[in-house]
Every structure is written in C-alpha cells, then in structure tokens.
Amino acid sequence: MGNQDIDGSTNPEQLRRFMKCLLNDVRALECMINDGLVESGIRRIGAEQEVFLVDRLWRPAPAALQILEKVDHPDFTTELAQFNLEFNLDPLVFGGDCLSQLERALNDHLAKLQQAAQECGNNVVMTGILPTLRQSDLELENITPRPRYFALNNALRRLRGGAFEFRLTGTDELIIKHDTVLIESCNTSCQKHFHVGPEEFARQYNIAQVVVAPVLAAAANSPMLFGQRLWQETRIALFQQAVDTRSPGHHMQERSARVSFGNHWVKGSAIDIFRDDIARFRVVMAIEIDEDPFDAIRDGRAPKLRALQLHNGTVYRWNRPCYGVCEGKPHLRIENRTLPSGPTVVDEVANAAFWFGLMSGVAEAYDDVTEAIEFDAAKTNFLAASQLGLDTQLAWLDGTKLPAQKLICDKLLPIAQQGLQAGGIESADIDRFLGVIEQRVSTGRNGAQWLLSSHAGLKNEGTSGERSAALVAATFVRQQEGKPVHEWNPAHLEEAGGWQKNYQRVEQYMTTDIFTVHEDEVVDLVANLMDWRHIRHVPVEDDQNHLVGLVSYRSLLRMLAHDVPHGTDAPVSVKSIMQRNPITVGPETGTLDAIDIMRTNKVACLPVVKDELLVGIVTEHDFMTMAADLVESYLRES
Length: 638
Hints:
The chain is an alpha+beta fold. It contains 20 helices and 22 strands.
C-alpha cells in the first residue's frame, strides 16, 4: 500500500490490465525461485513501527502531515488516519548485536518523531489501541489526504455493499456500525520481518503459524476500545472486521475474510500462498505497471513485481509472505503482523527476540511441525491467545496443553534461547530481552493487564473521559522512562491533567449508560426509572431506536398536578406527556457551546445524538460537578 499513484479507478479495462500484470508477476517469481535467483543463505530481520499522535489533552491529533514535514526523513510515512504515523527500519543481519541495533534504531527514530511532534504541540504514544479514541474521530475528515487511502475506502465499501458492522464481546460488549474504513486506524502495531530462503519458506512459514499464539499472549497490549473491555488483543478481532468485504449473505458461500490466519499448512512454496490469495480475493485497486519482470530478469535486474506487492498489500494474513528487493537482490520474508505497538521499546524488542528465537529454535528442534500438531489446533491457539492472553491454555508440539504462562516459561523460553544462540546473537542481549519476557509472563503483567488493572483502579474516580486520558498520559510518561511494562506503576487520575483537559467536549463526560423508554410505554415506568436510578430525564425512542422525545421530572409533576383527573386509573402513555423533538447535540460539541445551548433554550438536559441514534446524555448535574471542581481548584491555588 506504499504506492502513491493509485487513483481508485474501477475501470474494467484497467483492472483487467492490472490482473494480467499480477499473473505475470507470479509467473516471474516462480521462475526466479526455480532458477535460484531469489536470495538464500542469509538471514535478515526488520521492523515497522506504527504510532499514535496525541494532543495536549491526550486525544488523537490529526497532525501527521505537519509532523512529517518537520521530520523530513524517508523512513517516516503516512498511515490511513492523520493521527497515525509509521516508520520503517533498515534490515539487519540476524546475528551478533542485531537486537541492540534494533533497539537503538527504534529509540533514535522515536526521539526524532517525538521532537517534531512536540514542535507541533503534540506527543507520540505507542499503544495497540488508544484509550481516548472515540467513534467521532473516525470521520472522513481525519483520513490522510492521499489517493490510495480514499481508493481503499471506496473499494472496500463497494465490495461489501454498505457500512461496516462490528460486534465484539469480552467482559463488555461493543456493537457499532461505521461507514468508513477508518475504523482500521484504531489499531497500531510493531510488525516484525524474518528473512527466509525460498527452499525453506514452507517450513518456516508453518513454524510462524505455530509460534505466533504464545508470542501474542505474552505481548498483548490492546484490551479496550471506546472504553469497553473486550479481547486481550482486541486489534485482532477489530482489524478482521474492519476490512471484511463479505456481506452477510456471502458467509453461506464459505468465502474467506481478507484478514485471516489461513486455513491449512503450506506444503509447497510462497507461490502457493500468492496464488491462493489471487484466486480468493478480488483486485480492489489498480495502478499502471510499466515494468515487464521478465525483461528485468534478462537484463540481470531484480524486478519490483509492483502488481504482486500491491495486491499482497490488500490481503492481510496475520503471518504474511512478502517479496522485496534488498541491496539489489530479490528475497522472501515472513511479516508478523500480530504484535501491537508498545508498551515500550524494550518490550517490543523483547517480543521480537522471543519470536525470532522461536522461529530459529523450533526449526532446530522439530523436523516438521505439521506432523506434530493439527493446523486447527494452531489456529485455535491463535484465537484463544487473542481473546485471553496469558490466561489461555495452549496446545504445543509435544502433545501437551498447558496454561500459557507455564508453557512459555518452562518450554518456550529455553527453545527461544537456543534459537538465538544458534543464530549467533550476543549472550548479553539474549539474557536481557528474554529476561524481560520471563519477568513479564511469570508475573502476568503484560501491557493488556496493566491497562485493565489501571482502569479498574480508576473505576470510581472522575469521568470516563478522565479515566481514558489518565491511561494515555500514564502510558506516555512511562514510555519516556523506558522501563518494561511489568515494572510500571498503575495509572492515577491526576495524570489526566484535571478538569481543564477533560471537559473540553461533550463526549468526554456524557453519560453513556442510558435508560430509555418507548413512546407507547406507560408513564408509571418512567416514574419508577427516575426513582430507582435517581435520574431526572428519560429519553424516548421509537422502534428504530431513534430519539423521538424526552420526559423530564418536571413534566411528570405537571401531569400529576394538572393533567390527570383525581382518582383516574386509566394508564397514561409516555407520548402523551413527552417533549417531542428535544434539542440535541453531537458528541464532538464543545462544552462552552453546550452550556450556551442549555442557557439559551432554558433546558436542563441535552441528549447526545450521532447518526440519528442516542449515544449519551448531558445534564445540568454534569456542569455542577465541573463547577465544583473549578471552585475547589481555584481556592486551592489561592
């Protein structure tokens, strides 16, 4: 998806030309593999780092283009949303101090990016899903203004035939509908690359499929989205649904999702995966190809295979085969796309060391992993690790099924250590980075657990917006300190910055746990709701869950005093006393605007509506709380 010259055209002739180029690229790659032209005999590693940009309120900051201009370095590039950025590291030869080199490169790039961000009034945060993200941040106004991103959004919407629907269940449940692919931008990762020779590709790819689950369980760092506690690594479920082009009717056809773990072991070569993806997934966008790969081969040049790389970039296997050219030589690599961004650089390098070590160590210890474990068991491991993290049970190659913590500490860390030693990695780096994994796993304190325990500790403090901001602020501060996540202290509400930073917009403090009634309900239900839940306003919805009215405590009193004859037992409907078409605001409405609307219209309550649906409510009580905080703050300062 790095191509800048995508125009989003769906012209059938252009798509046909692109498909011919795509098929030609696959044939060329197959010839290069058969003729020994694809690099072998050397192992390299690499990484891509995605980050969030946040403003002084710890909210997403759509400042990517401005910050990129200040950074002015080819390693840094845009992502789908303007509040995300990515940088790519140069590949390293696997051996010696490559892990320390990887750590230094990550730190150097992050320092450069952070300096540029601060000059723009922002900060850089590494986390799988930013806790302060709201659905209102995912409007098209925040998409990066590059043709390829609009083309991707239009193509996926066209193939799906409508809006994107999401249903995620964990401790809490999230059900939303969204009309752009920007929901994908909720996720950021630190992707790792492992160079493999063509003759070993199938064996190494299958190993990657086996070891990804325990590595992900240890690395989980994304347990929440929009304030809801979902999977330990919610990115996995969210991303799969975010780019799923299947409409509901297609599921009967057993069509594969564009994001997947796969359905079987690889028996042949990388060509088999590329062919399978071309057969299963439509071309979603095209570019004009000006290179004949066979001409390049005859001229002694490594072909770019741009058509293959573009199509491969729109099929999101969690372990993805990649073709590339390094120092003029074509190569194959396996891209691990499962690992989240953060919590710190040392944590990310520890995750990399664990994965690289298992990739090498399992290859040394087992001839053929496909004979030792069923594919469905490996796939089940991956889904279980995504949902439960270190709390899951994982099947292993020796036929055992163990808790993730015991499997990792007792069996997998020794294998990873042997793999790193066999690769010639410096012993000090092996001890340091695998030691981080051992401490993190044995204590059960990975990034996901830190976020969840911090969130639980803040449960009865502040507003939901303040709690989310505290999590982001604490993450940023601890990242700057550089200690691995298992040594982090819990987040504290004071880190959110107080009321000045957390009452800027309605969505930061609105009540989202709302009790509503239908317009045909009996008024007695409203009265009881007010009594039971200690509330003074009850929204009224119709059969399509659209807001149609509002019942206030005052309207109930008025009914009792004037409208109902003494001694009448006839039930009174909600619609007979509700205020129709109440004044509403959107979640992005500023606090000063909301106060002005309430004062001008002499109302004590503002339902918050998004896409015609009720998403929250703000009352005068919220502003009384805000005023109390303001007075207390002022008196303390005085």
